[in-house]
Structures are given as C-alpha cells and as structure tokens.
Design brief:
mainly beta, Jelly Rolls, 147 residues, 9 strands
Length: 147
C-alpha cells in the first residue's frame, strides 16, 4: 500500500507566490511588499497575459515592510527583449547583498521589497511570481492560496 507523503523539499526553503498584475495605469506600480528580513534572494518573474506594450521593471526597497515609507531602487532590470506577446516571461533577481548595498548607499534601513512594474498601455496585464529564498526554513513556507 502506497503511503502519501509531503516531502516539502523546496516548499520549506522557498516562498513562492503569484500575483495578478492588472494596474489599469501607465504609472509605476508596486506589485506586492514582502518583509526584507526574510529575503536571502528574490526572483521575480513577469508573465505577459494581455497586451503588447513595453515594460519597465525594477526591484525596490522601502523603509517600511508594507511599502508605506520611503522607496529606494535596489535594481533596475535591463530587459534583453520586451515581453510583448502573451506567454512571454522575463525575470529579475536581487540578493540580500544587493538589498544591503542599496540601503547603505541611500543611508536607510530597507524593511520591505517589491517588484515595481510600468506598462506603456493601461490595459496591459500579467502575472507576477515571487520566488524567495527564505532566511527561515520551515514547513509550508509555500502553501496553497485558494479563495
């Protein structure tokens, strides 16, 4: 008889969350704030679902974990090609070292990090996936989210 197991090899080490990105704007939009203290590295994927306009992509920090403080750019992502067709995917990544360097350069403490995306057309949409190498290994770092 087979026994059901839940090994959680990656889910205990990584936090992965997907976000619907539908800003209805052409201004820079913060995707989702995460606590910088938990981040050893952050990989952000943008998947185009609607539209063809150019994308500007950055990972920013903030003096508040929820993004309510002062923003600091950690990294502006230079895209080799624009994700201008449905299904195109681009990635950006920062490490704890880059977060700490940006904080030092700005003379602030970075408490939160977020992807910040700008589309050239307000009707463009996508899905943004965060994969965080967490400073804390625990069961269910990544868990199901079902409404």
């Amino acid at each position: 008889m087979a026994v059901a197991t839940d090994n959680q090899q990656l889910r205990a080490k990584l936090v992965q969350t997907a976000y619907d990105f539908d800003p209805d704007a052409t201004s820079a939009t913060d995707v989702a704030w995460v606590d910088a203290q938990d981040v050893l590295s952050l990989l952000v994927a943008f998947v185009r679902t609607v539209g063809t306009s150019d994308l500007t992509f950055a990972i920013i920090g903030n003096t508040a974990a929820d993004g309510s403080g002062t923003d600091t750019t950690i990294k502006s992502i230079t895209l080799a090609a624009q994700p201008n067709a449905v299904g195109d995917v681009v990635f950006g990544e920062v490490t704890r070292g880059e977060i700490m360097q940006a904080a030092s350069d700005a003379g602030v403490e970075i408490r939160g990090v977020s992807a910040q995306l700008t589309t050239a057309t307000a009707t463009d949409e996508g899905v943004v996936v965060y994969t965080i190498e967490s400073a804390h290994v625990k069961l269910d770092n990544t868990s199901d989210i079902v409404a």
